[in-house]
Amino acid sequence: MKFDVVTIFPEMVDAGLTEGVVGRARERGVVDVVAHDLRDYTTDRHRVVDDVPFGGGPGMVMKPEPFFAAMEAIIAGRGRPQAVVLLSPAGRRFTQAEAARFAALGHIALLCGRYEGIDERVRERWATDEVSIGDYVLSGGELPALVVIDAVSRLVPGVVGDEQSVEADSFGRGLLDCPHYTRPAEYAGLRVPEVLTSGHHGEIRRWRRQQALRRTLDRRPDLLVTAALDGEERGWLREWDIGVPPTE
Ligand code: ADE
Asked: Is 154 among the residues known to form the active site?
């Protein structure tokens, strides 16, 4: 999986991708990330990347020319990316489904803005997608680009050791994850739920599915609209939803 990131802070992008499963995948060459310094694609002595907005108003706008030049260099040197993702709070919300779509592509470019935004012609000419990681405003697209790279990389075969754990994660089936426990069985007066130490694998599976569903109902009922539920799970939902008070 190849990523090309265009940014005025390439060190920030690199620093966020040296540890953990993504760091190891980069070392092994399964994931290939190149952060391109936008200022390398300026032509003036001061390497200026921003300018005042047409029409007036506060703040500065990122100039189109360095982004155009960076994209042309990426295509010439690394091939044409199958998606060019502009990070912006005005984009469509990034979801696990979007991460899966990008992971299937093999090569994506990510364009990071700073200041008030990027000249709209960059989006018009180059962007295939405009993506927001949530309804809050960050000071630039670098952290969102790291979020996208991490979420996409985990879905690339061979990046996360245990494929089953990717499947079981929150959102893997469109539900939140169930609670997890490890030893000791009692700590600080708090006990691990009995069923998990019972050795009854069928009961454990059932408990986990129930917990995942219960959490989703309590915290993110909006996810239930699109979650892939079986008949038994639909039955539990009907039980809990009809006037049965929450257990916690
Ligand atoms: N740039 C600034 N805020 C952002 C957000 N929430 N998502 C994506 N890019 C951004």
From this structure: yes
Q: Are residues 234 and 194 in the same domain?
A: yes
Among the listed residues 42, 144, 162, 158, the one whose alpha carbon sits nearest the alpha carbon of residue 90 = 144
Q: Is the domain of 21 the same as that of 119?
A: yes
Active site residue 220: no
CA of 135 to the centre of ligand 1 (A): 8
Domain residues for the domain of 126 are 2-153
Model pLDDT for residues 6-44, shown as the tens digit of each residue: 999 999 999 999 999 999 999 999 999 999 999 999 999
Distance (angstroms) between ligand 1 centre and the Cα of 104 equals 23
Confidence of residue 171 (pLDDT cuts 50, 70, 90): confident
The CATH number given to whatever domain includes residue 191 is 1.10.1270.20
Say whether pLDDT at 244 is over 60. Answer: no
Phi, psi of 156 (to 5 degrees): -80, 125
Q: Is 124 in the same domain as 177?
A: no
Instruction: Check residue 197 and report its DSSP letter.
Output: G
Per DSSP, helices labelled H in 161-200 are 163-168
- To the nearest whole number, what is the mean pLDDT of the chain? 95
Is 160 inside any structural domain?
no
